[in-house]
Amino acid sequence: MASTTAICSSFKTDLMVGIHDFTNSTGHAFYWALYTSTATNGAATTAYSATNEISGTNYVAKGTTGANTTPTLDSTTAYTDWPDPTWSSASFTAASTLLYNDTVTTPTADPSVAVWDFGGDQTASGGDFVLQLPTPNGTTGILRLA
Amino acid sequence: MQITDTLNGHTVEDVRRNADNSVTLYCTSGRTLELYVSNGFIEVKPPRIILPDQPDPAPAPSERMRLREAFLGMMVNYAYHNDSGYLVIVCEPLRHDRDMYAKAHGHREITLTHSNGVIDELPPVSAIIGLPSLAILGDAYGL
Q1: What does the pLDDT look like over A1-11, one tens digit per residue?
Q2: Using the beta-carbon criterion (under 8 Å), do A126 and B132 form an inter-chain contact?
Q3: Hey, of B105, B128, B139, which one would you mutate to test binding to chain A, going by the most A CBs within 10 A of its CB?
Q4: Are A29 and A21 in contact (CB under 8 A)?
Q5: How many CB atoms lie within 10 A of CB B83?
Q6: Mutate to test the interface with A, among B126, B137, B139 (most CBs of A within 10 A)
């Protein structure tokens, strides 16, 4: 089994009831967690889980965070962006990542945002493990609301 | 393993390749460890027994090697053979610069490999994964 790239369905309803705050600095903290190829995260994933999360040198459980930009409009499309999540001097293997909100605790703790599958195991050995996000704009931004 | 037992908590101050291609790690504490290739694996040479009135049979240090740069100022935590058969030595930076260094790098794994009996560091391998854009679409459906 493997994970599937998707925006989590629960994220859509969470947006409509005001669960998430993507405002830079004063908003919520969003984390990138890494998973093994055994994980089956996807559209149905509702929250962060440690099940099948990877372990390895310089990976801390629950993943890494970075300050996202306050959502911006590009024409009629809203988008936000993060610094490329990076684990330095890393030695581990991962097959997918889950972006989730680490600040929110209720009604669901650590609600999920989206899942990206890497298409197979990706390994760093003493080097950097980098998730390279696309150019932030209304067409290619990593997370958009069109 | 023996490397862990010998070097745990010790800080490496020099690494030199010897005339017989073995590699000696010298620690600030005075402790040393000799690595050599045996049956395709990097192993630790047995401790030398130095008898009175006999010269130390240790090979004379010869070449200060590139590997020294990887180890310099690192305190050894432990070592293991990974799934690929490489010898991995897990280190952390010295206390005096630990805070600054650890923020950027954390622990460091130095992976040793060998070719034709010559031990060297396996170059670090990075992984860069490009993620595609994801969108919740409204306009695409003419809404």
Answers
A1: 799 999 999 99
A2: no
A3: B128
A4: no
A5: 5
A6: B126
